[in-house]
Amino acid sequence: xxxxxxxxxxxxxxxxxxxxxxxxxxxxxxxxxxxxxxxxxxxxxxxxxxxxxxxxxxxxxxxxxxxxxxxxxxxxxxxxxxxxxxxxxxxxxxxxxxxxxxxxxxxxxxxxxxxxxxxxxxxxxxxxxxxxxxxxxxxxxxxxxxxxxxxxxxxxxxxxxxxxxxxxxxxxxxxxxxxxxxxxxxxxxxxxxxxxxxxxxxxxxxxxxxxxxxxxxxxxxxxxxxxxxxxxxxxxxxxxxxxxxxxxxxxxxxxxxxxxxxxxxxxxxxxxxxxxxxxxxxxxxxxxxxxxxxxxxxxxxxxxxxxxxxxxxxxxxxxxxxxxxxxxxxxxxxxxxxxxxxxxxxxxxxxxxxxxxxxxxxx
Amino acid sequence: xxxxxxxxxxxxxxxxxxxxxxxxxxxxxxxxxxxxxxxxxxxxxxxxxxxxxxxxxxxxxxxxxxxxxxxxxxxxxxxxxxxxxxxxxxxxxxxxxxxxxxxxxxxxxxxxxxxxxxxxxxxxxxxxxxxxxxxxxxxxxxxxxxxxxxxxxxxxxxxxxxxxxxxxxxxxxxxxxxxxxxxxxxxxxxxxxxxxxxxxxxxxxxxxxxxxxxxxxxxxxxxxxxxxxxxxxxxxxxxxxxxxxxxxxxxxxxxxxxxxxxxxxxxxxxxxxxxxxxxxxxxxxxxxxxxxxxxxxxxxxxxxxxxxxxxxxxxxxxxxxxxxxxxxxxxxxxxxxxxxxxxxxxxxxxxxxxxxxxxxxxxxxxxxxxxxxxxxxxxxxxxxxxxxxxxxxxxxxxxxxx
Lengths: 363, 402
Prior knowledge:
The complex is a heterodimer. Chain A is of the alpha/beta class. Chain A has a single domain (62-352), classed as TIM Barrel (Alpha-Beta Barrel). Chain A contains 16 helices and ten strands. In chain A, the strands form two sheets. An eight-stranded parallel barrel of chain A has the order 3-4-5-6-7-8-9-10, surrounded by four helices. In chain A, α3 (88-101) crosses α4 (116-124) and α5 packs across α7 (187-196). Chain A is globular, with a radius of gyration of 22 Å. The relative contact order of chain A is 0.13. Chain B is of the alpha/beta class. Chain B has a domain at 85-359: TIM Barrel, CATH 3.20.20.100. In chain B, 40% of the residues lie in helices and 12% in strands. Chain B contains 19 helices and eleven strands. An eight-stranded parallel β-barrel of chain B has the order 4-5-6-7-8-9-10-11, surrounded by four helices. In chain B, β1 (68-71) and β2 (74-78) form a beta hairpin. Classes of the chains: A alpha/beta, B alpha/beta. At the A-B interface, α1 and α14 of A face α7, α8, α16 and α18 of B.
């Protein structure tokens, strides 16, 4: 109660000081920044998304996965959130209902939620494994190939399968990660080895931090099949994967996998900057194969499935208008905290790099 | 009024003895020589017993400290392509607000000036005007003309009219009729460059203030992202200076040194370094680097000055000691330091201003409509309206109390 009062007091003081600054400056109407839309650089969507195929209005459309010949559903089920639901039973039910609704793309990572995410997904996929395109991520964070191969065995066991459709290097987010991954005896050699052994069909990498780091990975010219990255209407104008990485993937026919369509934590929706549906539709209208969604309840699953089933890509004009609308609030990165803070950087990765955990940093 | 500032008397004497710096008194050969590099040093050392050659580099030596003149214990460097020279370290304005008493803060400024420091940084919004008031108090009684006085305008996207009003506030607090340098504070958000260049924006106030003789030079500052600095430059205004974080961690992470510094030098603008310790000195506390090598590294870059936060006489004296014994680092030494910092720099935690929103001054967030974090120190600072013992009555900013 006292805390609540204190907070109210503070916000009142904020308003007051705000007013004072403006009055002091002799400008009663200085509350808004200048309008400069004419100066805004035009941000055009690189290209249209890959052609969708659909078996009817009650089905989730699919798109081709880069040059692989496979097709996957235009939304994917994120593995992280699956491991955060309150019970194993609910997790199993989410997986089963998603498969039955036509979701075929399933995301996961070796390190999520102390391995619960993979275990629960494995349970949910019993009897349904062949209906899905199953992905997990390897979490060496700079360690060597044998650590990677060990993790692969563990992922296969937890997911209760003998092969993955896609295996990606997880969380390429530190400036020196590309060097570490491509070092002799590093994780990239494990990707080759796993393919040779028939344990994985396709390979890729993921990361939420910086387009520059993604481009450094791509500069090695390794034949990645997929690249996963944050794509949303705020990213479009701020340290933008859409602007910098997506065109490069297009050029090389690498499948783009979108994530964090709602800014990672849905804050933009809570702030009232966008509605969930338009944010998701924006992400899906980009030239991506699928958009991976964090789903932690049947309600969210059904909502997303509904959007996917009736999905019509936004027009370029509609996308441009949304980017323009979002730009003023994108400018400090508070709607994409995974880029601008340490909040989303995983503990396993930090530990491997010798960095203290995020909660120990006064950031 | 404007020509009289800048140099300590002994430096003015040294310069006039060698025929002046720039301008009509200088012959072509000498001017070329100066532009080319070591000229100022050679010429100055010819007339001052205390002088020694500090740094020589090729004109194109992008990563070397610029030519410098040393007079007494202080090193002076050219302020971009202007005729002005400034001391190679500057006193940061924000930390003046952290000095416990007004007397001590005033003493710090006086001691810095006596040691030959001419560059003084500040901003309209620091501690709601307290630090400008402190500096103004310290500079009255005849010291104003010994310094190169800067402050920053804090429109953060708002109008040129507001900027003009802020300038009047700053001049009043400084008790002076002009600034040597007026910079746009905190280009830290994606749309800040466009807002600064907008019709009716802060750049129009720059033009007017220069015409009216109220400011000599103009520039901008920011700690967040090299891309925003480059955008400011790309849009084409002829700034005299650009302020940015420069340290061996920066060299490895979203680097101003790599991306912005060469461009600033190419355009003949003065590069002003800040955050030589990484803003918080966490890299020093973690034992990765030492304070002295951090300052030496920053000063060895091609910058006009390195602005240091100093909240006590001890820190001032420590910095002065580094300057007195300063020899620019060799390329190999700089490379080794960058390499040593690379691993620790890769997640950016030793440069928190780049990887945390908590280091964005709330005064910059407010006009953009970005939310605040009420646990943040600077939010508390912004909201703190109690008058401290540091405030002198005649310049106390208006407070609104109920």
